[in-house]
Design brief:
Length: 155
C-alpha cells in the first residue's frame, strides 16, 4: 500500500507493518493506524524512528526505545490496560517513547511517562500513562545520546 507522509513523501509499505491503536494515541484519538518508519540508509537500527499515521500524512512522531537512555526503564501499568494487545512476552513487546526536538537540540526530551506499548505479533498498540511517579514527561536526553554516540565511536 502507498502511505503519504510529510517527511518521506509517498512510500510503499507492506500492510503487515500496520500497527492498530484501538484508542488512537494521546491527542490524536481519531487516528488508529500507524507504521514505524526508519530514516537511515545503513544496516544499523536507528536510535530514532518515526511513528507515522497511515490516515494523516502530517502526523509523524519521532520515537525511540526508552532503554537507550534509561536501561532500567520499567513502566508500571495495570495489566487490564494491556489485555487488548494480546499475549505479551519478552520476544514480542515493543516499548517506545515519543520525543520532543526543539530548535535547541540540547533541550531534546523523551516522554517517559506515556510510552507506546506494541505487540509485534498481533500488530496492536496502545499508549499508556505509567504509574511510576519518577518518570517525567520531559526527560532530558541530549547529553545521554551524545555520550552513547561518543562511546560507540571510540569502539
Amino acid at each position: 500500500m502507498i502511505v503519504k507522509t510529510k517527511h518521506f513523501g509517498e512510500i510503499e509499505q507492506d500492510e503487515s507493518k500496520i500497527i492498530y491503536f484501538e484508542n488512537g494515541i494521546l491527542g490524536f484519538e481519531d487516528f488508529k493506524e500507524y507504521t514505524l518508519l526508519f530514516d537511515n540508509e545503513e544496516g544499523d537500527s536507528p536510535v530514532i524512528s518515526w511513528l507515522q499515521s497511515i490516515e494523516e500524512p502530517l502526523l509523524a512522531l519521532p520515537v525511540m526505545s526508552p532503554y537507550t537512555v534509561k536501561p532500567d526503564y520499567n513502566p508500571e501499568v495495570e495489566d487490564e490496560l494491556l489485555k487488548p494487545l494480546g499475549d505479551l512476552n519478552d520476544e514480542n513487546i515493543v516499548i517506545l517513547v515519543s520525543l520532543t526536538v526543539p530548535n535547541d537540540i540540547k533541550k531534546m526530551t523523551a516522554n517517559m511517562k506515556a510510552p507506546f506499548i506494541i505487540n509485534a505479533d498481533s500488530k496492536k498498540g496502545c499508549q499508556i500513562i505509567a504509574e511510576n511517579s519518577d518518570y517525567e514527561v520531559r526527560y532530558m536526553i541530549h547529553d545521554i545520546l551524545k555520550s552513547l554516540k561518543e562511546e560507540k565511536g571510540a569502539k
